[in-house]
Amino acid sequence: MAKVLVVDDSRLSRRMTVDALLAEGHEVIEAENGELGLAAFREHAPACIVTDLLMPIMTGFEMIAAVRQESASVPIVVVTADVQTTSRQRCEEHGEVKMLNKPIQSAELTQLVSDAIGQFC
Amino acid sequence: MQLTPDQHDALTEVFNIGVGRAAASLSSLLGKSIALSVPRLRMCHVHEFASESDQTAISVIQSVHGAIEGRAVLSFPETSGITLARLLGATADVQLDAGELDLDLSCILEEVGNIVLNAVMGTLANCAGGTVSFSIPRVASKCAITDLLLSTRREAEADCDVIIVADTEFDVTDSQIRGQLVLAAEVLSLEQVVPQLPLGLSHC
């Protein structure tokens, strides 16, 4: 199993995501906005990042752009309430990104994360 | 701006699709079915808009900017809001007589509002072929929807007195949870968007 960084300002959504990942045996690091997420990425070098988009202080878009400046390959899974196709396109401007809409289905999330980590390692 | 019958139908249908997506999300979150009322769409002066919601509602409000300018509100009677939050894991007793809502309840309802309102407004944006940005959702208690919509209008919008209002009511089956979803959009922002809707329905 792997170290996964979860970035979401919503305690409810973060809890749902973290619970799903812990149940799969992953080690989980949490951050509640993009700025803290970026710091956690630098400190912990996770195998995968699961992030929301709309967050205070630093958005998921901004965090993804900053992460991609430092790592072109770390898998990123976006979990968002934003259903706009333009938001998906905007995420993909920074390289391949997997995307799920909230509310998440645990099995779908964990499969996506496992597949992403498998391709990364 | 006057809506033609076709434009009225298209806008209503887009709202229908968005509400359907929102209801699916809420149903998935709660593990329960959602019953919806027939959505109502009307154009009115902002000060004429009157909601049936009472003054003790718990509401989540989110602003949208870009291709569409407006605000969306998800509102619950206070008991429904508490029941819904407890279904999603809120454990603290809520003292609604206090000035502020319990933090746990607020956080949960903010996210529910985020998911539901994004579903509606994002669908509208997709259908219109445009892009919108959202404010971070905010919970307000003991506030009528009308007052909430008026108090969050930006100064630049204050001269735009006519709004299009779409709203629907919902019931969570087998639960004491009901609520209302209201979308208020500035008419001027819709003048460019509405003509595109019949063409954009396939992109919803």
Strand content of chain B: 25-35%
Order of helices and strands of chain A: EHEHEHEHEH
Task: Look at the structure and give the CATH class of chain B.
Answer: Alpha Beta
Low-confidence stretches of chain B: none
Question: Sheet with the most strands of chain A?
Answer: 5 strands, parallel
CATH class of chain A reads Alpha Beta
From the 3D coordinates, which CATH architecture of chain A would you assign?
Answer: 3-Layer(aba) Sandwich
- What is the general shape of chain B? globular
Q: Identify the overall geometry of chain A.
A: globular
Q: Termini distance of chain B?
A: 24 Å
Assembly form of the protein: heterodimer
Number of strands of chain A: 5
The CATH topology name of chain B reads Chemotaxis protein chec
SS-based class of chain B: alpha+beta
Fraction of residues in helix of chain B: 25-40%
**Beginning-to-end CA distance, first to last residue of chain A:** 11 Å
> How would you state the average pLDDT of chain A, rounded?
92
Largest interface: A-B, 21 and 25 residues
Helical proportion of chain A, percent range: 40-55%
Structure description:
The complex is a heterodimer of chains A (121) and B (204). Chain A is of the alpha/beta class. Chain A is 48% helix and 19% strand. Chain A has helices spanning 11-23, 34-44, 60-70, 85-92, 106-120; strands at residues 3-7, 27-31, 48-51, 76-80, 98-101. Chain A is globular, with a radius of gyration of 13 Å. With 204 residues, chain B is α+β, with helices and mostly antiparallel strands. Chain B has one domain (5-203): CheC-like (Chemotaxis protein chec), CATH 3.40.1550. In chain B, strands 1, 2, 3, 4, 5, 6, 7 and 8 form an 8-stranded antiparallel beta sheet that branches. In chain B, a hairpin with a 3-residue loop joins strand 3 and strand 4. In chain B, helix 1 (5-30) runs antiparallel to helix 3 (103-128) and helix 2 crosses helix 3 (103-128). Chain B is globular, with a radius of gyration of 16 Å. Chains A and B meet through helix 1 and helix 4 of A and helix 1 and helix 3 of B.
